[in-house]
Design goal:
Shape: globular
Structural class: alpha+beta
Low-confidence stretches: none
Largest sheet: 6 strands, antiparallel
Radius of gyration: 11 Å
Mean pLDDT: 94
Oligomer: single chain
Strand order of the largest sheet: 1-6-2-3-4-5
Length: about 70
């Protein structure tokens, strides 16, 4: 397992866990980011937000938020 910020671009990932409060988990869940969902990491530069593809939609996630999302390679 690793955080979303540690993954490489163009990797297909499965979300394992979200380590934060209820409101954050609910917000991510509404966007399609919940445990066992699959995402593709589109952009992960050294600094700045990450871009992920979730079910054909691209989402921008702040680096601080992405550090709270645990993922594994599919």
């Amino acid at each position: 397992m690793m955080t979303l910020t540690m993954a490489s671009e163009n990797e297909i990932l499965r979300i394992v866990e979200v380590n934060h409060g209820y409101k954050f988990k609910k917000k991510l869940s509404e966007m399609g980011l919940y445990p066992n969902s699959t995402v593709e990491l589109i952009k992960n530069d050294i600094c700045g937000p990450l871009i992920v593809d979730v079910k054909g939609s691209r989402l921008i996630i702040g680096r601080g938020q992405a550090q709270k999302i645990l993922v594994e390679e599919v």
